[in-house]
Fold each of these.
Amino acid sequence: MRNEAGLTLFVPVYNEEALVVSHTRRLQAYLKSLGLPYEIIIGSNGSTDRTVRMARDLCRQDPRIRLFHLPQKGVGRAFKEGVRISRYDRIVTMDMDLSIHLGFIGEACRLLDQYDMVIGSKITGNQRRAWIRTLASISFIRLAGMLLRIRFNDYSIAAKGYRKALVQRYLPCLDDQTFYVVQMVYRASRDGKRLTEIPVACTDLRGSRFNLIHEGLYKFGNLFWLWLFGLKMKKEE
Ligand SMILES: Nc1nc2c(ncn2[C@@H]2O[C@H](COP(=O)(O)OP(=O)(O)O)[C@@H](O)[C@H]2O)c(=O)[nH]1
Ligand SMILES: [Mg+2]
């Protein structure tokens, strides 16, 4: 079987014992309906509850479910490990709360035949999220557009599709936390790669696993650094 024919679904997890079993089963059922070879990679960093033990049981029942556990936190670190061990050339990421409509997976998978990256956008789709989170996302997206001249509408970790070769190209310089999506979109756009965006439906009303104040400072701070880095590169050209 050629690797191109299949799909790797990567799901980062941190303390998701309440959801890991039922939601992985939902993902399995959905992926089965696509009729492609697939694998689900569950990547944990630092989970301290029963997530890892429960996911290990799932792996025993089905070899298409795979698990790794890294001791240090950092969702970007987990993403990079997921890509390193992935079997297929198309990689789609989803959050374990399944806050994005699963239809994104099939659509992204089809689009990855023509594109290097597929961006699922909550603000151009239909979303039910706390207003404060929506406002923070919109501010970040607008600022990223102004500073980096990237014209997309979602830089969160969920609902993104990648050709594996694209990620491999940028792997050594990707962030260990959540900023890796921005880095990838920025670099891929600059390198003339094929990126596309589609609206996604999202319902996310539970509390975040991230510390949102820390997360905001981290992402906005990194955005300025990347902007300065871009200016420096331009001067050197
Ligand atoms: N591997 C890993 N996953 C994480 C970490 N923090 C959060 N996650 C997972 O990332 C996904 C998104 O988390 P969530 O709390 O829904 O984020 P939000 O709704 O976007 O604020 C979920 O599947 C979490 O379990 C982390 O440090 N490492
Ligand atoms: Mg969520």
Amino acid sequence: MNWDNALLRYARPVPRYTSYPTATQFTGAIGPSHYARWLASLEGQSLSLYIHVPFCQALCWFCGCTTTVAKSAAVSVAYASLLVEEISRVAFAIGGAGAVRHIHWGGGTPTQLGISSLRRVLERVRARFDVSDDAEVAIELDPRTLTRETIEALPGLGFNRVSLGVQDVDPAVQTAINRIQPIAFVREAASCLRDNGISWINVDLMVGLPRQTEGSVRRSAAATIEALRPSRVAIFSYAHMPWLKRHQRLIDASALPGPRERLSQALAAAEVLEAMGYLPLGLDHFALPGDRLELASKTGKLRRNFQGYTDDTAAVLLGIGASAIGSLPSGYVQNESRVVDYRRAIERGGFAIARGIALDDDDRVRRDIIERLMCDLRVDLDDTARRWNVDRASFDDDIAALGPLVDDGLVRLSGRRVEVDPSARSLVRSVAATFDRYLSPAPMHHFPEFLHRAEHSAERGPSSGGPSGAMARDGG
Ligand code: SF4
């Protein structure tokens, strides 16, 4: 069997499953009053925070994040005041929250707030929540706007992990996406971060960008690893959606690789990373042996959330800031996406929730199945049925739908244990989609025409930062 043909044949227009149900299922039926009730039931629970900063110095043409060009420093300072207010309000609604184990700043480019505003917001977090001494405090960084002063200030603010957006080191590709960033410059930033005690460095790479070829992607991946030796790497596939992201119209669509080329680029990048000592995790992440993600993966504790892959085991993720998504035991919530709407809601004295979804029992069971597939490439449905106390026959139709993949050797079925062949990991979303009750059933055959536009769904896309970057991303 031609493996590439098989992978292309089964590619489907499916989500990336950074949540289940996915953000496309969120509706305005869930609002601030639901959020207030859901928060009130969280007392004592450990939690994590995602703080979104929707500002950048300039827009990269490929970007799918919720961000705009910052108009002035005053706008950033005013936005920080809103974050501070929201943090206090959320903490008050919870009552006595448990320990905070992860704080992630994403965007946009969080450092656009300026060090004093970052400090102000983090001081409020620490004043209102019990932040564990060993908490991971991460931030997405745009190497182009990073100064030595900023880097030197980060450890003092408690940051211990950073995500650097690299995407591609080829000058022709960088020109085609409006992100000129010499690798020597990024190397210097990484070295300065390490000199200042921040050794946990994540990097984003991309495939499917204009002017990329399989060869250029190989060279770019190798040069990035040689220069930076990050602990984690994520390889994202560019999604060209100019109807959703107007600035993507600036990209020359005729220079974009087709579905087959994109697949070979992704496989080539993975091959380079593995040859350079990285271990593949889930759909598109790689980690050095001994990294916390790799250890979580080994022990079956890898998790999937809006930050991509994580070792965070907290049951609650609070989203702070415009467009931020929160994940609570009762459901998902998302803040107003536009800063102006977010500001109005916070200034009115309430929460800024614009949409969300309440989870029912079936959602929770299927979320568990989909998360295990996306993290481990396998799931034991009998074990799932036992743990959730549901009829094992509930999954009969889902198993039957996997038939063609099983026949082609891409998925193994032993009893009710489903396992995706590691060489077919790019298809894990399609396998997970089989268990998604919100998707209309689609036969498992011939979807190559969708591959190009289906790579990113509603939840995720590269930002200034890296794989743990995340996520209140609208288009990607
Ligand atoms: S890729 Fe990063 S730096 Fe570029 S526009 Fe998007 S969020 Fe901003």
